[in-house]
Amino acid sequence: MEIWRNTQDVIKGALAKAGLKGSDLASIGITNQRETVVVWDKATGEPYYNAIVWQCTRTHDICKELMKEGGQDRFREITGLPVATYFSGPKIKWIMDNVPKAKKAFEDGSAMIGTMETWIIWWLTGGPKGGAHVTDVTNASRTMLMDLKKLQWDQGILDILGIPREALPRIVPSSDAETWGPTMEEGPLKARVPVCGALGDQQAALVGQTCFEIGEAKNTYGTGCFLLMNTGHEPVISKNGLITTVAYQRSDRKPVYCLEGSIAIAGASCSGCETTSA
User: Fold this and answer.
1) 45 and 172 in one domain?
2) Is the pLDDT of residue 274 over 80?
3) pTM to 2 decimals?
4) What is the pLDDT of residues 29-80, one digit of tens each?
5) Helix 60-67, helix 88-98: angle, nearest 10
6) Residues 185, 218: one domain?
7) Same domain for 56 and 109
8) In whole angstroms, what is the distance from residue 200 CA to residue 136 CA?
9) pLDDT at 271 over 70
10) Sheet with 28-32, side-by-side order of all strands
11) 182-214 b/e with 16+ CB inside 10 Å = b?
């Protein structure tokens, strides 16, 4: 809820600083830290537990159990990802296994799951009053639950983790010609503005650096360090430990994939030092 409150404050502050009203905007897009996940009540919007952030390693034992059959690459052919604490799927299972209210909600169908763009889009477009429950392909590709080629939730992996498909958001392109829903007039924009764009933060950096040709890459230096390289319309499975993920998808077009080298601790390892991006 703190994340949603802060988002509203930032929206209001940005509009005020620019001298604009919500009705002046053509559309809204969202970027977010990837893998961070929250589970909440569809009727009230109340989370059952704090969001579990991408860096959290509490799912170590769950991942060890998953690796007993097939090793770390058990799901790599389907998802492009190794089994690791980094990704959202095991975090969702941890909430199901350790938060009694959430477990009950999954059983009675009242739970909703989302990474941070899903959470914010749901609230912007109405929340409990019919908010859109969607995730874009880049964020979905970081859950360890999505089939990279089909761009759909993989039922086999959902069954292994015990995650109900109906609690998950609908997977949509990164940018869509059609809105997933307009913002609510009583919200921070005080207007109905189409919400039709979302990208995980590292993919957003790839797009922002205009890496639209095969072989073009960006490297970002921050809390972690992330190198992403455009590999075109076919996912490339690395033989050297890189992650295969969705780079972006424009409405009604084939997805573009990338290879990613992820270093979780970079700028976070030095206290008070400045980091730069290039």
Assistant:
1) yes
2) no
3) 0.90
4) 999 999 999 999 999 999 999 999 988 999 999 999 999 998 988 999 999 9
5) 110
6) no
7) yes
8) 8
9) no
10) 28-32, 194-200, 181-182
11) bbbeebbbeeebbbbbbbbbbbbbbbebebeee
